[in-house]
Design brief:
CATH architecture of the largest domain: 3-Layer(aba) Sandwich
Structural class: alpha/beta
CATH topology of the largest domain: Aminopeptidase
Strand order of the largest sheet: 1-20-19-21-17-18
Shape: globular
Number of domains: 2
Number of strands: 21
Strand content: 15-25%
Distance between the termini: 101 Å
Radius of gyration: 28 Å
CATH class of the largest domain: Alpha Beta
């Protein structure tokens, strides 16, 4: 009896110790979460303070005494002090031919149509050495970067996907498809939609919100601005659109690494996909693009998108009939302004590259924001620059010059005015660094303020005025190191 009581007492003592240990662990975890939340809040406050200080400095500089410049001044006509301003932009660029000009020139479109029919099967842009005279070391490809007039060196398509039933519609995935005709290299770039960046006209937001505020056009302007490139077309996709596109390929085989369970509101789960190699229907492929595992971060979801896209591209390359079924009629389920022959050629290039080790799938270089469990990222600028130079050099607007980083301030009170200005300037090699409101909305004329009276900077200011169709060029006497040009948009924009 005594032994039993002793054992009971020891058991109760273990239970008490276990209970205390469990409660202690819970208190420690709760304290850790509190400390992480406090650290996250401090980082957010510090970041907000830095952004506010930068905007305040830029606004002070914009309000500082300036010198107005007459239309088309020469360097000798402009007087004033010379200031040295540090440049924040590395990929600064010259004017290139815009997609509107390409679309308006019907002869060039016809040239593209004729070219891509041949290019799809011949692999234009690269040729293999076939004789001693043509030999390349170690059987390497000999690059031929000559292209017919009017043919884009690197067609690039931005695919923005969102649920058709979502309200408001925010982007679930953002993907760039590109092919460099000069090197015969194809690229798929997966962009996390929770990447925080400047959305022209709306401030610093996740990329997903750009679709809600300005549709696919604002997503394209934001991505162009973020990467410093110019995409040729943007497509607003739903999962029904993807299912329709995949239906032309048919069933594909995927190796799903883990069981995927969809969680219901009552806490129960439905197994949607088993782990292992399996046959997947077009509808299931579209579902995989959208599938989110409870609690996973966006970067963990991107490999599923990559797997689905590669499986369909390889199926297209393996069967000419499947390829013809997808691209033969111009791919109508992809709603984009890109010319249909160019779109068909792009998908054909990607399909062929997927089976010949010429297709590179990349993820936008980012760093996480906040504590574990949160889903937010910021661009890794150095790695991003290397990525663009490596895979999207032909999509950078031609030329490279300094002096093209911009701050755009709304001075007329019209909603979305920053987006409109960005859509005019970003394709021409400018980059919007900051956006916001001016000190008031009563500016009658658009002011284009520069902080350097060099001939090169005055030429850039005049180019901005020509692109916008309005504006008075001014030289600020206050040096500015945050941006090269401040545009205070007045009531004269957009020009009537």
């Amino acid at each position: 009896m005594a032994d039993e009581q002793a054992r009971g007492a020891r058991g109760e003592d273990r239970d008490r110790r276990s209970d205390r240990s469990w409660r202690g662990r819970r208190r420690r975890r709760r304290r850790e979460r509190e400390l992480k939340a406090q650290a996250r809040d401090r980082r957010k406050r510090d970041r907000s303070a830095r952004e506010a200080a930068a905007k305040k400095a830029a606004k002070r500089a914009a309000r500082a005494p300036v010198q107005a410049i007459d239309v088309e001044p020469s360097a000798s006509e402009v007087s004033g002090e010379s200031h040295e301003s540090s440049r924040t932009e590395r990929r600064l660029i010259e004017k290139q031919q815009t997609k509107r000009a390409r679309r308006s020139t019907t002869a060039k479109i016809a040239g593209i149509a004729a070219f891509v029919v041949v290019a799809a099967g011949a692999g234009v842009g690269i040729r293999l050495a076939t004789s001693n005279d043509d030999a390349a070391p170690d059987g390497q490809a000999v690059i031929d970067d000559s292209l017919p007039d009017g043919v884009d060196a690197q067609p690039a398509l931005l695919l923005v996907t969102a649920s058709e039933d979502a309200d408001p519609r925010v982007a679930d995935s953002i993907v760039i498809l590109a092919h460099d005709r000069r090197t015969d290299a194809s690229t798929i770039l997966l962009i996390p939609t929770s990447t925080v960046t400047d959305v022209p006209g709306h401030g610093v937001l996740p990329l997903a919100d750009a679709l809600r505020f300005g549709g696919p056009a604002l997503v394209a302007a934001t991505v162009d601005n973020l990467l410093g490139i110019h995409v040729d077309g943007v497509a607003d996709m739903t999962y029904r659109d993807w299912a329709g596109l995949f239906s032309r390929v048919g069933i594909v085989e995927l190796d799903i690494p883990e069981r995927l369970v969809s969680r219901n509101e009552d806490g129960t789960g439905d197994v949607r996909f088993l782990a292992g190699r399996q046959q997947v229907t077009p509808e299931q492929s579209a579902e995989l693009l959208a599938f989110e595992v409870d609690g996973e971060r966006e970067l963990d979801r991107l490999p599923r998108i990559q797997q689905v896209l590669l499986a369909h591209l390889k199926a297209m390359a393996a069967d000419p009939n499947v390829l013809s079924s997808v691209v033969g009629d111009g791919v109508p389920m992809i709603d984009t302004e890109m010319a249909r022959p160019e779109l068909s050629a792009l998908l054909t290039f990607l399909a062929n590259a997927s089976t010949q080790e010429r297709l590179d799938v990349r993820v936008l270089p980012v760093r996480p924001i906040g504590a574990a469990g949160e889903d937010g990222y910021r661009p890794d600028e150095l790695r991003l620059e290397a990525l663009v130079n490596d895979r999207f050099a032909a999509s950078i607007p031609s030329g490279t010059r300094e002096g093209r980083s911009l701050q755009v301030l709304n001075g007329n009170g019209l909603p979305g005015i920053g987006q409109s200005v960005a859509e005019q300037l970003v394709p021409e090699g400018f980059r919007v660094v900051l956006t916001g409101n001016a000190d008031d909305f009563d500016h009658e004329k658009t002011r284009i303020v520069i902080y350097d009276d060099s001939p090169e900077q005055i030429e850039i200011a005049n180019q901005i005025r020509e692109l916008l169709g309005v504006g008075v060029v001014e030289i600020s006497r206050t040096p500015q190191s945050v941006v090269d040009v401040t545009i205070v948009v007045g009531r004269d924009y957009p020009p009537s």
